[in-house]
Design brief:
Chain lengths: 340, 340
DNA sequence: CTGAAAGCGCTAACAT
DNA sequence: ATGTTAGCGCTTTCAG
């Protein structure tokens, strides 16, 4: 594993070449104020001529920062990775970081070995902060990071008592307004296909569903609830189950648009007309853009806001040294696409 | 962006605490040989008691290595990210790295700014090597990395004259054997849905298709070729096009299983029976595992081998300092799933 | 505005 | 087998 990169010029060589002190070169490459314009140019020419590139290890050591943050994916179900929601989040985080000079690193943590490796990496100072997504209920990683006092921001809470900083969508409100919308259409036999219930977000959406029913004076029944794992296939299965147990169903709140698409197929296979007989609403997971399905009404999650908010919280924690946790809950929006 | 992590014990403090020299502590944390068992234990206890974590910036600076490699995704079409092939590759690379102590970092390069940022990151020594996937014909990044003498391995060539180290599948041979298989079934009107033709792999597959026809004394015609971008939707479109231009078609080589699935839908929509009227073969992109479609015959790409080979080449280059490029072409395998 | 000097925390070569 | 020492290349006071 020996590595040598000979002939790499150092800051000192640049200084000599430009006939200035090392401090001046440092100021120039860091765009620090207080350098005469002519000197600055001289240094820049020297940098060009020598092909100088700052050694980031040295910079890290002296400056005590890495200028990098990690986005960790702990999803035990690795398929999650292939979901559009995921890539949209990554894109929005990338956008939010563009003019900070901070490098975004994605890392996978699938086993204990990998968790340990990553912890050493992060605690060793190779990143200034950590972003976590799709954290399941019992995941210990957030606590380990918190204990190491590493700035950390979660996408979604692990539970109602989450303390580590997080950004979440208003899942309860979103589900409630979706179901209320169905009820306002005169539908009275509304079911729901939830996400995996060890995800707090899925629990919240279920709660929203129940609240909306309660507000309308209706009763939620366990038989009207089926669980999925956000995939189309599981949506298909869950829907088939619901139709069987609950034949006069007339509305469905689905875990995601992908799940909703699966549900649609099952409904059609069972001879139901959509949305005349049964209306389906899913949580937006950004799969619709690539789908040819008829437009569904969806609960829109504000992806851009999520990315921006996560980065903002992380930068704040980096600034002041992780002395407090902050929480942001973003409003969701019901986007009505069909008119029944 | 100020960052302080006070109270972090250093190697020196561990040495004092354990009443040994710093060198000894260094040997212990690096599992170096030649430390008496009792001292080793004493040092380990001191490490525990102080909660010592090595500073990786310092280690990098002194040891001239980062113990990390980057997997860069340059895909202009960001959707690629959501493809199963992609996540399978990531998984296999992760597996190949598990017992090397090397951290895998995924980074996205979607713009010039990001390319520049990444280059500084890599040239700055934060990674020991770079893996690139889905590199398009004109991508300058491999050359820039080569110029910086950074160990680099591509997944797939940019062209037939690629010099930078790469691991590729035998696309020509795979396509040829798939088409030959169709011809052996007595099919004589075989078409192909290619991938994006600025990808060398797609060109190779097209060549394999043509070679198989030529070997059978048949002529390839441009009208029997349609282009896709690996998605199901584009497969559907391409297939519809082919049927229109070429109604008596009886076999198709598709760019991927996902494309093939789209093609199937189009075929059925046009009233063709599969595989009786038309047989479809796709290149395995690992989407089949999550699909309920009837099993297709596929050209299997050896994912595990690809990951292992890429890591092996990279480690070799890291070892000897990128003085030579190496190329590996892995055999593909026709997996026959239906019997017609 | 600029130069000099003191570390940052570790590895590796050299003593012992 | 273990301690000592000299850097690794940069940032950041502190003088000037």
């Amino acid at each position: 594993m020996g590595r040598r990169r000979p002939g790499t010029p150092t800051l000192e060589e640049v200084a000599v070449h430009a006939r200035v002190g090392r401090g001046t070169v440092s100021r120039v490459i860091n765009n620090a104020a207080g350098v005469k314009e002519s000197t600055r140019r001289a240094v820049q020419r020297a940098i060009e001529e020598l092909g100088y590139v700052p050694n980031l290890a040295a910079r890290s050591l002296a400056g005590r920062r890495a200028d990098a943050v990690a986005l960790v994916m702990t999803e035990p179900d690795w398929r999650q990775f292939a979901e559009p929601f995921f890539s949209e989040i990554v894109r929005s985080l990338g956008d939010a970081l563009t003019d900070t000079g901070i490098q975004l690193l994605l890392t996978l943590v699938r086993s204990d070995t990998e968790r340990q490796r990553f912890l050493e990496y992060a605690r060793g100072g190779r990143v200034d902060g950590v972003l976590l997504m799709s954290v399941h209920a019992g995941d210990p990683l957030p606590d380990m990071l918190a204990e190491a006092r590493l700035p950390t921001v979660l996408l979604g809470r692990r539970s109602g008592e989450e303390y580590v900083s997080y950004v979440d969508a208003d899942n309860i409100g979103g589900a409630r307004s979706a179901v209320s919308h169905l009820l306002r259409q005169g539908r009275r036999r509304v079911a729901t296909i939830t996400g995996p219930l060890d995800l707090y977000a899925a629990q919240c959406r279920l709660r929203g569903y129940e609240e909306a029913l309660a507000m309308a004076g209706l009763e939620g029944e366990p038989t009207r609830v089926a669980e999925s794992d956000f995939t189309a296939e599981s949506g298909r299965r869950a829907m088939a189950e619901l139709i069987e147990r609950y034949p006069d169903i007339d509305g469905v709140l689905a875990a995601s648009d992908t799940t909703a698409a699966g549900a649609l197929e099952a409904l059609r296979a069972a001879g139901r007309r959509v949305p005349e007989d049964v209306a389906v609403i899913g949580f937006d997971d950004f799969s619709l853009a690539q789908r040819t399905e008829p437009p569904l009404t969806t609960v829109r999650q504000p992806i851009e806001e999520i990315g921006r908010a996560m980065i903002r919280l992380l930068l704040e924690e980096m600034e002041e040294g992780a002395v407090a946790w902050r929480h942001v809950i973003l409003r969701t929006e019901l986007v009505v696409r069909e008119s029944t």
